[in-house]
Amino acid sequence: MKMRYRWPILILMVVVLGVTACEDDSKEAAFTVADLPAERDADTGKELFEKGDGDAPACKSCHNTGSEDGATGPGLGGIGSEAGERVDGESAEEYLLNSIIAPGKHVVEGYRNNMFSKYDDKLSKQQIADLIAYLLILN
Ligand code: HEC
User: Fold this and answer.
1) Contact at 8 Å (CB) between 131 and 48?
2) Is the CATH number of domain 3-136 1.10.10.10?
3) pLDDT (0 to 100) of residue 139
4) What's the 62 CA to ligand 1 centre distance in angstroms?
5) What is the full DSSP assignment across 102-134?
6) Which pLDDT tens digit goes with each residue over 16-38?
7) Domain range summary for the chain, segments of one domain joined by +
């Protein structure tokens, strides 16, 4: 291959890789609030937040529940009352669910999308519903 064809091909590869990576980052939510069980337990949610479960890392490893930033994520104090205001057309529950199962969908300003991205797979719907119940009482 002649030298002058190499650069365009390299650039094309970089672009294709970049686009694929972006798609991954903003993966769509695998399910909606309508799929979550209605019975929820905020205490179980709190425990999950603090300890995680199996392959699902504790939320607390990146977030705290006050206004201070956690290790890498924003402080979640007040999220219970703010969640419903974050994105037009998304209720508090919808926003929280998306934050957990599709964290790249809306990235909080000033932060990078480096939240653990497999909670949809590693936690049950019941566990996610319990977490949401807990987040909703963080005021
Ligand atoms: C590896 C670190 C990490 C872990 C673990 C993590 N998060 Fe996050 N989280 C982040 C980062 C970074 C952001 C900000 C970027 C974004 O919005 O995706 C964030 C954003 C959020 C937001 C949006 C906050 C806002 O102000 O709108 C919520 C809600 C949230 N996380 C909940 C959770 C819950 C619940 C868990 C546990 C099930 C969890 N996170 C686990 C890093 C993490």
Assistant:
1) yes
2) no
3) 87
4) 7
5) -TTSSPPTT--S-S---HHHHS-HHHHHHHHHH
6) 555 545 445 568 999 999 999 99
7) 3-136
